[in-house]
């Protein structure tokens, strides 16, 4: 014990010295000023003055009022969208991104699996080459579509795709894709796009499914598996009075059965691979099986070499072509949450 | 509602109905509705920080007790309310979140319910902590994102803002997180105009690559002319305010306060920016905070003009 006391004192001195070194005179002045005070805007006021002021603002609902307020906030959203079906088996996909090669393959696959109806959740254009090629395939294939942010932007003559990226490099490539697609899409095709609904409701067996592009709330909302909480999805489906939600927009497919037994499926995109090192693209087959909804996310092989050749002929960026040939994204990466980004190559 | 002895010189945001209706000037202040509560923020570190940065708009420091640490219990209560409100994601800030001794327990309960992002200065990210955080991340289906603040691509540009020796320590913390498998997002403010330029961004990305980051991630944020930053470079001018006439055709739905709220130990605030304005407080519970809010502060102008989102 006897020799620990001077040691502690010495340690204390060393700590104090390190503290002095670490903080500059300005910082130490700031720290001294903050003692016993609160920062109110640019002013310092005694802590109790701030805390007294704070409690004069805001509401203090009682327990019953609070419960009513919460219930009203997440109350049902009226939706007059007509219900299609019922079907026992449907094919659903999103994000064609001008990839007519994959769309041809998808139509064959859907027929082979006996899908009674085929739904596209929007984004016919972007990324790939020769936008007009997609149109006759959609018509001949009897594909029922909703608008994605691309259709909304192209049909309204907007200046950008409203993809919802936040990073300048991602936005640069998004702008390049949009400009190419806008310049190579006929006025008639754009008008046709604008005639599609923003959502559909489809019955598969007993289940009424809501089909949207991004989310029911926002056309360009990203619903990534690792960044979308279960309570959020349960509340959405309660509000929409739906038994399931089908969406796309992120380019990454996933399926989650919620604790309530309802299903949420990001159906994937057929326009470019899913950042998994595979050249296939992804779509969804939904089927009533023994009174349950069976959800299958399926890879789709197509003539990706042919697509890459078309892209090169159209002078689209090498970054895009690399993605088609390798299955790894080279752009749109900054929007990815930690888990999805950690599985990326770039 | 006004109190001459404690009313600061800057405009004070207010949700008091009598103030909102009292003069034509105040009538012109637009209100933003909360259309859904997607993002819930926790000021888990209070205003306490192990740094005292010269640009901090919340003026955090080792001695600033304006807001204290949030307890695990307070966070739990908000998480329960958030469950019913359908919150999509959670963000943690301060102050420095990892000063809070409950921080890892808080992340553990949060990651059972949704994705979490932590805004940190990186100084407390040692190898043992990063290993524990990586384990938390791996055991959840949801993402755990770390955001580490850095304000220059060398000590000469960073340290005058964030403090002596911090450049090296921040990068060391970021590297430790990276090596544990947590690829942090480096967050840079526009304290130097060049930080936001294409070239400035490239310099940051190059710096990170040189430190072994294979997939460097970067977010750039504008500065708010409040707190310490007002002292460093000046406060807002009187014209930097929003009026009803400024409303875009689609209304104010682009502002983060239309989809988020901030919990501190003093109650629920409208956003993470205005926690040092008593008028930014909306109540004690999330239910109290579901009403619309007047965009009366100059910081609201920054959010509108720069399209700011504190989200990643």
Task: Give a quick set of tags describing it.
heterodimer, A: 346 residues, alpha/beta, 13 helices, 39% helix, globular, B: 312 residues, 9-stranded mixed sheet, 10 helices, 11 strands, 15% strand, disordered N terminus
Concise account of the structure shown:
The complex is a heterodimer of chains A (346) and B (312). Chain A is an alpha/beta fold.
Characterise the protein shown here.
The complex is a heterodimer of chains A (346) and B (312). Chain A has 13 helices and 13 strands. Chain A is an alpha/beta fold and 346 residues long. Chain A has a six-stranded mixed β-sheet with strand order 3-7-8-9-11-10, with helices on one face. In chain A, helix 7 packs across helix 9 (187-194) and helix 11 (304-313) packs antiparallel against helix 12. The longest helix of chain A has 19 residues, at 4-22. Chain A starts with a helix and ends with a helix. With 312 residues, chain B is of the alpha/beta class. Chain B is built from ten helices and eleven strands. Chain B has helices at residues 17-20, 24-27, 72-85, 103-110, 127-138, 155-162, 166-179, 198-210, 228-233, 298-306; strands at residues 31-32, 39-43, 89-93, 116-120, 144-149, 185-189, 217-221, 260-264, 267-269, 281-283, 293-294. Chain B has a nine-stranded mixed β-sheet, covered by helices on one side. Chains A and B meet through helix 2, strand 1, helix 3, helix 4 and helix 10 of A and helix 3, strand 5, strand 7, helix 9 and strand 10 of B.
């Amino acid at each position: 014990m006897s020799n620990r006391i001077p040691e502690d004192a010495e340690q204390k001195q060393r700590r104090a010295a390190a503290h002095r070194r670490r903080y500059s005179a300005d910082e130490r002045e700031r720290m001294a000023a903050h003692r016993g005070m609160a920062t109110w805007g640019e002013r310092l006021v005694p802590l109790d003055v701030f805390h007294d002021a704070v409690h004069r603002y805001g509401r203090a609902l009682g327990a019953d009022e609070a419960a009513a307020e919460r219930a009203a906030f997440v109350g049902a959203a009226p939706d007059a969208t007509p219900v299609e079906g019922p079907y026992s088996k449907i094919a659903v996909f999103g994000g064609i991104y001008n990839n007519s090669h994959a769309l041809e393959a998808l139509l064959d696959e859907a027929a082979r699996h006996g899908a009674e109806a085929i739904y596209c959740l929007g984004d016919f254009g972007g990324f790939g080459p020769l936008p007009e090629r997609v149109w006759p395939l959609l018509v001949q294939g009897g594909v029922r579509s909703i608008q994605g942010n691309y259709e909304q932007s192209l049909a309204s003559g907007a200046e950008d795709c409203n993809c919802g990226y936040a990073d300048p490099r991602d936005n640069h490539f998004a702008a390049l894709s949009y400009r190419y697609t806008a310049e190579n899409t006929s006025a008639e095709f754009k008008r046709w796009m604008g005639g599609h609904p923003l959502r559909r409701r489809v019955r598969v067996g007993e289940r009424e499914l809501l089909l949207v592009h991004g989310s029911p709330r926002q056309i360009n909302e990203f619903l990534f598996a690792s960044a979308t909480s279960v309570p959020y999805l349960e509340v959405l489906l309660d509000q929409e009075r739906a038994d399931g939600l089908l969406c796309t927009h992120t380019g990454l497919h996933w399926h989650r059965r919620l604790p309530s037994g309802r299903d949420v499926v990001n159906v994937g995109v057929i326009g470019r691979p899913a950042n998994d090192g595979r050249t296939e693209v992804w779509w969804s087959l939904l089927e009533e099986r023994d009174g349950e909804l069976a959800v299958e996310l399926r890879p789709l092989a197509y003539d990706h070499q042919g697509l890459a050749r078309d892209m090169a002929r159209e002078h689209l960026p090498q970054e895009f072509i690399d993605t088609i040939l390798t299955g790894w994204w080279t752009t749109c990466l900054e929007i990815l949450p930690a888990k999805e980004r950690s599985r990326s190559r770039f | 509602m006004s109190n001459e002895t404690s009313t600061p010189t800057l405009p004070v945001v207010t949700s008091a109905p009598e103030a909102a209706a009292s003069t034509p000037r105040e009538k012109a202040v637009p209100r933003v509705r909360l259309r859904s509560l997607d993002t819930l923020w926790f000021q888990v570190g209070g205003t306490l920080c192990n740094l005292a940065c010269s640009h901090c708009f919340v003026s955090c420091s080792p001695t600033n007790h304006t807001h204290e640490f949030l307890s695990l219990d307070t966070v739990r209560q908000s998480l329960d309310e958030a469950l019913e409100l359908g919150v999509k994601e959670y963000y943690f800030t301060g102050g420095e979140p990892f000063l809070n001794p409950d921080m890892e327990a808080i992340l553990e309960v949060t990651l059972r319910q949704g994705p979490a992002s932590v805004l940190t200065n990186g100084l407390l990210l040692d190898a043992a902590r990063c290993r524990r955080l990586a384990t938390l991340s791996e055991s959840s289906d949801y993402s755990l994102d770390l955001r580490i603040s850095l304000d220059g691509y060398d000590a000469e540009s960073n340290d005058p803002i964030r403090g002596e020796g911090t450049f090296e320590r921040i990068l060391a913390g970021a590297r430790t997180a990276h090596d544990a498998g947590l690829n942090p997002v480096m967050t840079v403010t526009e304290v130097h105009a060049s930080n936001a330029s294409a070239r400035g961004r490239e310099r940051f990305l190059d710096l990170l690559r040189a430190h072994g980051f294979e997939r460097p991630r970067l977010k750039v944020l504008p500065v708010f002319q409040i707190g310490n930053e007002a002292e460093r470079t000046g406060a807002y001018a009187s014209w930097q305010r929003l009026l009803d006439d400024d409303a875009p055709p689609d209304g104010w739905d682009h502002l983060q306060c239309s989809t988020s709220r901030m919990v501190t130990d003093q109650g629920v605030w409208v956003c993470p920016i205005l926690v040092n304005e008593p008028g930014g407080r909306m109540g004690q519970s999330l239910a109290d905070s579901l009403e619309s809010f007047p965009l009366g502060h100059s910081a609201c102008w920054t959010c509108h003009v720069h399209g700011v989102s504190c989200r990643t």
